[in-house]
Amino acid sequence: MTATRQPQPEAPLVPFTVRDLLLYFLHLGTFGFGGPIALAGYMQRDLVEGRRWVSRQDYLEGLAFSQLSPGPLAAQLAMYLGWLRAGAFGATLVGIAFILPSFLMVLAVAALYVHYGSLPWIQGVFYGIGAAVIAIIVRSAIKLVRTTVGKDWLLWAIFALVALTTAWTKSEIVWLFVLCGVIGVLVKAPPQLSSRSSAMVSLAGFDQLLTGMYGLAPLATVGALFLFFLKAGAFVFGSGLAIVPFLYGGVVEKFHWLTEQQFVDAVAVAMITPGPVVITAAFIGYLVAGPIGALVAACAVFAPPYFIVVLAAPYYRRFSQNLQVKAFVQGVTAAAVGAIAGAAYILARRSLVDLPTVFIALITLAILMLTKKIPEPIVILAAGAAGFLLHGTAR
Question: Which residues contact 205 (CB under 8 A, 6 or more apart)?
């Protein structure tokens, strides 16, 4: 008998309206820094532990569902929680509220980038922010380990296996998540043998909306943008970490839409703006084909997770209390936390490049672990300022 799933009686849930949920996700999309893992951690802290709008069980099921499904983790989890409250209508409104603020911010930065050239100061800011982001991810991973893995030996074994695999392969392997879920079922709730068997648009007069870094983009390029980012949203699993290598292979190496430095700048902009990291799609789309390109890329990358939530969540939810489904979710959740730990290791190798960045990361982690009075955006901005000063003086 394990103590993993029942650490203590859960406090009763507090009633709330759709408007309350929309205002929360509008705020999170505007001020939520740190990438998908940190954003998922904020949702747990605010909606489960703080306001008690969502039960711990519902949150963990949503996390497992989002990790199993392709597309950006944080956005899909937000849509799932919106779906829990108000069905497809709630998923739609929450998705818009969560994504819109960061989309508008990235649009503004992209416009400045196109008109004024490269942004050398971003590299200095990202030098510090990248280190702080590692601390945020580590803190989120520690918290998720405590709440999902506990003292269960099987879940610890799954956690370690996926963490090592993610760190080794530098990617998240979806079939491994499924396998971990199956192992959870076989060990915790062996099933009694039973079987069951799913055009061209005229844009004349809108030249400015299609103008990127290299001038007016042809409609064929806009179509290629849409298909590429639709594929990114449909076939890349896990967090923003998983989608970055995929984007690099297409944007830089295959289509040659951006140079390597421009792609690095795009990722940096996504990391220093709040909301989902995958919003980098909008920045890339803007550089390639102006505002229309940004809108097309953003809609394409977020469309698959939205439709997966609306179409698949009802079936997932219907069977989520089944013993076998619960065991499967436990295995997948432990795998998800392991992937987070592996991703933290990979990002740390890329972001902690010298002693100052290690120092920034350790100070940030200490602040986050020891005090809850300093908001994460303040910590992020302070790390960015320190990184800018240190990077500037180093060069």
Answer: none
